[in-house]
Design goal:
Elements lengths: L2 H9 L34 H19 L4 H8 L5 H20 L3 H21 L9 H18 L4 H8 L4 H16 L1
Length: 185
């Protein structure tokens, strides 16, 4: 019997006896519960990835397949308030999609970012609209939309700021990568 197996047997409690000190009875630290798979470091949770995909499909369906929706959204965007009107239109779109399909909170930001990009593309492609967004304005639309979406879901600016430092950069990067993969799909 090799040394590792002997150590594992010594750590198991005798039948009906108490668990060794420090044992929570939940298996080794970092163990993956039965029926679940361990994700690669930096990998996005498959449930969240699926939820983002579901949200992206719903946004695309609403914008491009539901009759009259894109026209209504384009009417909301105006040249006098380019950034704010585009942000408000996107928030309306995302909240309506969320009401229809009940997105997980973890997917809202990625779906919102996708919706901003699609809305700006729609405005750009509309021959009737003479509105164009510079790269800086597009970034402002994205930031304003994210702030508005957080507010609409009850997150205060203070709570939002407080959590910024709590999210590791690699987690931010992995969701950014998921967003890019979704766009390229």
């Amino acid at each position: 019997m090799d040394e590792q197996m002997m150590q594992e047997q010594q750590q198991q409690p005798p039948e009906g006896g108490p668990a060794p000190v420090g044992d929570t009875g939940q298996g080794p630290q970092g163990a993956v519960p039965e029926g679940m798979t361990e994700a690669e470091p930096g990998a996005v949770d498959p449930m969240i990835a699926e939820e983002v995909s579901k949200g992206v499909q719903a946004v695309s369906r609403v914008l491009y397949e539901e009759e009259g929706v894109s026209d209504q959204i384009l009417k909301m965007v105006n040249d006098k308030e380019k950034v704010g009107s585009a942000a408000k239109a996107t928030v309306m779109l995302v909240t309506q999609v969320d009401k229809q399909i009940d997105l997980m909170e973890e997917a809202i930001a990625a779906v919102t970012a996708f919706a901003v990009d699609r809305l700006l593309e729609l405005v750009d492609a509309d021959a009737r609209s003479k509105i164009e967004y510079s790269d800086d304005e597009a970034k402002q639309v994205m930031m304003t939309t994210m702030e508005l979406i957080l507010t609409s879901y009850g997150v205060t600016p203070e709570e939002s700021q407080a959590t910024h430092g709590d999210v590791p950069q690699e987690e931010i990067d992995q969701y950014g990568n998921l967003y890019q993969e979704t766009l390229n799909a």
